[in-house]
């Protein structure tokens, strides 16, 4: 999965996603900002952000539960702090992060709120209702309709919604890209055998990328609590 993700993202097909996140982070990024990428995978997005924003690598942390993903991320960049851990209790001191990024990952709002300092920002990137719809229509007998992501749980953890936007664009996938995309997502394990065979028989497919970006803020005056 990690190898497929690395190969697919290195193709540049998801570069617009990195661009959208860069735009969202631009107003809050500065050289002294401490950033945690919670669920960083093999480090593609954090690498892209460091190339586009005034962030210092020594103040950036990438966290993933997969040691294989972190090993790949460390080969991508050796100047970032890489951690094998869970989003449920990120191993940073309470209130120590200025920016927390969670892209298509497991969300633990109490843990996120604890790590963020007052005035810190949580940037959530999630799949929208039409994300990869064309592929899902091929690999599943029936496509389940998805709703737009909500921020209720985050707000219950003391985080205030600042903005929410939805971005869409289309990409053209060849046979190799389709195979990589399936392997790097849970769809490989959820799809039917017939659906996977139908996808493998395609020589190309145009798919929709539907991305929702939410920015939440931890109000000033709200301190973190320790899990210890």
Give an overview of the whole structure.
With 228 residues, the protein is α/β, with parallel strands linked by helices. The protein is 35% helix and 27% strand. The protein contains ten helices and seven strands. A seven-stranded mixed β-sheet has the order 3-2-1-4-5-7-6, sandwiched between helices. Helix 3 links the parallel strand 1 and strand 2. The longest helix is centred in the first third of the chain and has 11 residues.
Helices and strands in order, then pairings?
Elements: H1 2-10, H2 15-25, E1 35-38, H3 44-52, E2 60-64, H4 67-76, E3 81-84, E4 97-103, H5 109-115, E5 116-127, H6 133-139, H7 152-156, E6 160-174, H8 175-183, H9 187-190, H10 193-200, E7 204-217
Parallel strand pairs: 1-2, 1-4, 2-3, 4-5
Antiparallel strand pairs: 5-7, 6-7
Helix pairs in contact: 1-8, 2-3
In the predicted model, the low-confidence regions spanning at least 5 consecutive residues are none
Radius of gyration of CA atoms, rounded to a whole number: 18 Å
Q: Report how far apart the termini are.
A: 34 Å
**Helicity range:** 25-40%
β-strand amount: 25-35%
| Net shape | globular
| Number of beta-strand segments | 7
Order of helices and strands: HHEHEHEEHEHHEHHHE
Structural class of the secondary structure composition?
Answer: alpha/beta
Biggest sheet, open or closed, and with what strands and sense?
Answer: 7 strands, mixed
Physical arrangement of strands within the biggest beta sheet: 3-2-1-4-5-7-6
Number of helices: 10
Mean pLDDT across all amino acids: 92
């Amino acid at each position: 999965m990690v190898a497929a993700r690395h190969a697919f993202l290195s193709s540049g097909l998801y570069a617009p996603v990195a661009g959208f996140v860069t735009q969202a982070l631009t107003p809050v990024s500065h050289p002294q900002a401490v950033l945690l990428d919670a669920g960083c995978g093999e480090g593609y997005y954090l690498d892209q952000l460091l190339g586009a924003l005034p962030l210092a690598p020594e103040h950036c942390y990438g966290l993933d539960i997969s040691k294989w993903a972190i090993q790949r991320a460390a080969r991508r960049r050796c100047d970032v702090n890489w951690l094998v851990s869970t989003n449920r209790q990120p191993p940073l001191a309470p209130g120590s992060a200025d920016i927390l990024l969670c892209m298509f990952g497991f969300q633990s709002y109490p843990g996120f709120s604890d790590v963020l300092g007052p005035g810190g920002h949580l940037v959530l990137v999630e799949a929208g209702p039409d994300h990869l719809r064309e592929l899902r229509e091929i690999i599943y007998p029936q496509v389940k309709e998805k709703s737009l992501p909500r921020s209720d749980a985050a707000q219950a953890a003391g985080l205030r919604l600042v903005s929410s936007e939805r971005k869409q664009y289309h990409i053209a996938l060849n046979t190799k890209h389709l195979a990589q995309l399936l392997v790097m997502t849970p769809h490989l394990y959820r799809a039917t055998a017939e659906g996977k065979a139908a996808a493998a028989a395609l020589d190309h497919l145009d798919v929709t990328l539907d991305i929702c970006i939410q920015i939440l803020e931890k109000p000033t005056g709200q301190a973190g609590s320790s899990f210890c």
